[in-house]
C-alpha cells in the first residue's frame, strides 16, 4: 500500500472495518441460536475491553473520574443500541437488521434539531421521509400496516446508536478517546454479563460457531475496529469516513445472501436502497465534527 496516500490507506482500512461489521450480523444471528443475547454481548464486550487494555494500556490508564462518569452515560446508549440490535436479530434477517440500524445516521440530525428546539430543515425532513418509506417497504408485509417485531426492536437500537452519536460529539473531546471508549465497552460488557447470568442459561455446549462469533466480534469488530478508526481518522475527515462506513449494510446483505441464503424481493431491495440513499444524503449534508460513528 506504499503507493497509496495516507488518506487512501486510512479509507481502505475503514472499508475493511465496514466489511467486518457487515459480516458480523450473520455471524451473531447464527450464534444466538446457541447463546442468549445478554451473555453473548457480556462476554464479547468484556473480552474486547481486555484486548483494548493489552493493545493500548497507556491510553486506558488515563481513565479519570470524569471520564468514568461520561463513559458510563455513553455506555448506556451503547447498551440500548447493542441489546435491541442483538435481540432483534433473533426475529429478523441480518440484512434487515443492518439497514434498519443504518437509520441511526438519519436520526442524528433529527435529534440535534429536537434538542436545539428548532424545526428540522428540508434536507433533514427529506432524509427522514426516505428512511421511513424504506423502512415501510422492508419491514411491513404486504396488506398490513404493522412493523415486524424484530424490525421494531432494531429501530429502537438505531435510536440508541443515534443518541450515542449525539452525546459522543458533545462529551468525547474532553477525554482521551481510547480511555472513554474503554469505559463504554466495559460498561456494556458488565451490565450485559450481570443481567445474562441471572436471566439466561449458560450454553451446555460451547460450539465452534459460538466461540468463533464471540472471538470475531470481540477482537475484530470491537477492539481492533475501534483502534483502527481512532488511529486513522486524522488522515481523512468524518464525512468521507462516514460514507465508507455506510457500506456496512451492503456487506451485511451480501453476507446474508452468500452465507445464510437470505433472499430479497424487489420490494425489500427498494426499501434497502432508499435507506442507504437517506444515509448518504444525511452524511453528505451534515456530519458532526470529529465523529464518524461507533461500531456494531
Report the biggest beta sheet as strand number plus sense, adding barrel if it closes.
none
Total number of strands: 0
Overall radius of gyration: 18 Å
Q: Kindly report how far apart the N and C termini lie.
A: 27 Å
**Helix and strand string, N-terminal first?**
HHHHHHHHHHHHH
Helical content (DSSP H or I, runs of 4+): over 70%
Pick out the low-confidence regions.
288-295
Which key phrases capture this entry?
mainly alpha, 76% helix, 296 residues, disordered C terminus
Note down, in words, how this protein is organized:
- With 296 residues, the chain is mostly helical.
- It has one domain (6-285).
- The chain is 76% helix and 0% strand.
- The chain contains 13 helices and no strands.
- It has helices at residues 6-31, 37-55, 57-60, 65-89, 94-101, 103-115, 122-139, 149-171, 177-199, 208-232, 238-245, 248-259, 266-285.
- The longest helix has 26 residues, at 6-31.
- The model is unreliable at 288-295 (pLDDT under 50).
How is the secondary structure organized here?
Elements: H1 6-31, H2 37-55, H3 57-60, H4 65-89, H5 94-101, H6 103-115, H7 122-139, H8 149-171, H9 177-199, H10 208-232, H11 238-245, H12 248-259, H13 266-285
Helix pairs in contact: 1-5, 1-10, 1-11, 1-12, 2-9, 2-10, 4-8, 4-9, 5-8, 5-12, 6-7, 6-8, 6-13, 7-13, 9-10
Amino acid at each position: 500500500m506504499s503507493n497509496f496516500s495516507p488518506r487512501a490507506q486510512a479509507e481502505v482500512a475503514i472499508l475493511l472495518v465496514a466489511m467486518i461489521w457487515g459480516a458480523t450480523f450473520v455471524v451473531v444471528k447464527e450464534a444466538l441460536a446457541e447463546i442468549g443475547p445478554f451473555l453473548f454481548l457480556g462476554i464479547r464486550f468484556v473480552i474486547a475491553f481486555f484486548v483494548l487494555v493489552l493493545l493500548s494500556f497507556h491510553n486506558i490508564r488515563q481513565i479519570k473520574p470524569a471520564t468514568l462518569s461520561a463513559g458510563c452515560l455513553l455506555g448506556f446508549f451503547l447498551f440500548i443500541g447493542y441489546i435491541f440490535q442483538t435481540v432483534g436479530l433473533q426475529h429478523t434477517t441480518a440484512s434487515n437488521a443492518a439497514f434498519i440500524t443504518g437509520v441511526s445516521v438519519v436520526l442524528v440530525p433529527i435529534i440535534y434539531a429536537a434538542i436545539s428546539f428548532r424545526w428540522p430543515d428540508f434536507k433533514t425532513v427529506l432524509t427522514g421521509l426516505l428512511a421511513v418509506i424504506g423502512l415501510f417497504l422492508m419491514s411491513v408485509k404486504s396488506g398490513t400496516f404493522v412493523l415486524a417485531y424484530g424490525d421494531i426492536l432494531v429501530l429502537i437500537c438505531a435510536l440508541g446508536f443515534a443518541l450515542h452519536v449525539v452525546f459522543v460529539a458533545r462529551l468525547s473531546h474532553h477525554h482521551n478517546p481510547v480511555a472513554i471508549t474503554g469505559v463504554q465497552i466495559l460498561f456494556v460488557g458488565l451490565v450485559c454479563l450481570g443481567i445474562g447470568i441471572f436471566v439466561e442459561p449458560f450454553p451446555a455446549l460451547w460450539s465452534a460457531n459460538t466461540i468463533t462469533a464471540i472471538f470475531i466480534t470481540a477482537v475484530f469488530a470491537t477492539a481492533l475496529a475501534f483502534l483502527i478508526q481512532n488511529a486513522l481518522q486524522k488522515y481523512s475527515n468524518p464525512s468521507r469516513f462516514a460514507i465508507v462506513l455506510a457500506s456496512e449494510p451492503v456487506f451485511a446483505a451480501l453476507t446474508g445472501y452468500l452465507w445464510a441464503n437470505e433472499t430479497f424481493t424487489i420490494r425489500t431491495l427498494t426499501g434497502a436502497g432508499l435507506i442507504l440513499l437517506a444515509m448518504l444524503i444525511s452524511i453528505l449534508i451534515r456530519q458532526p465534527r470529529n465523529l464518524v460513528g461507533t461500531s456494531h
